UniProtKB/TrEMBL annotation:
The lineage of its organism: unclassified sequences, metagenomes, ecological metagenomes. The keyword Phosphoprotein applies. Keywords: Phosphoprotein. It comes from mine drainage metagenome. The keyword Ribosomal protein does not apply. Residues 3-122 form the Response regulatory domain. This is Signal transduction response regulator, receiver region domain protein. PROSITE patterns: RESPONSE_REGULATORY. GO terms for biological process: phosphorelay signal transduction system.
Length: 138
């Protein structure tokens, strides 16, 4: 399974994203943390394959997390997907792009798009959510 870490200060977002992965039968082991500092500690200890990272967080924000990750050559192979409510701020989007993220998605996150991006990052086939699978089998 894909090791995925979600770093978002909103527990609801973490719960929602985890539910999306479970509903789609996505082969993942997912952990959630709610601040940048804890995210960095978990990244160092657990080495996720994919990081889903919010930008606006108290303390160490998502851009600082990105800068620290990119300063560590051991983390070059980790795919990063940024999710943010400030998608309209070009300076933030440009800073994230400069850090070499796989994608930047606006909140609220579209489940299908997130699954497609994670699947592409890991070169995995993306399963259909259960209701779509049922519709295709009829």
């Amino acid at each position: 399974p894909v090791r995925m870490l979600i770093v978002d200060d909103d527990p609801f977002v973490c719960t929602l994203l985890r539910a999306v992965l479970e509903q789609a039968d996505f082969p993942s082991e997912t952990q959630c943390v709610h601040d940048g500092y804890t995210g960095l500690m978990r990244i160092g200890a657990w080495r996720p394959d994919v990081l889903v990272l919010d930008i606006l967080m108290p303390g160490i924000n998502g851009l600082e997390v990105l800068n620290r990750i990119r300063a560590d050559p051991d983390l070059d192979d980790m795919a990063i997907v940024v999710i943010t409510a400030i998608f309209d701020r070009s300076d933030v989007v440009q800073a994230a792009r400069s850090a070499g993220v796989a994608a930047i998605l606006p909140k609220p996150v579209e489940a299908r798009r997130l699954l497609d991006i994670i699947g592409a990052c890991m070169a995995l086939p993306v399963p259909f959510p259960n209701e779509e699978r049922g519709a295709l089998q009829r």
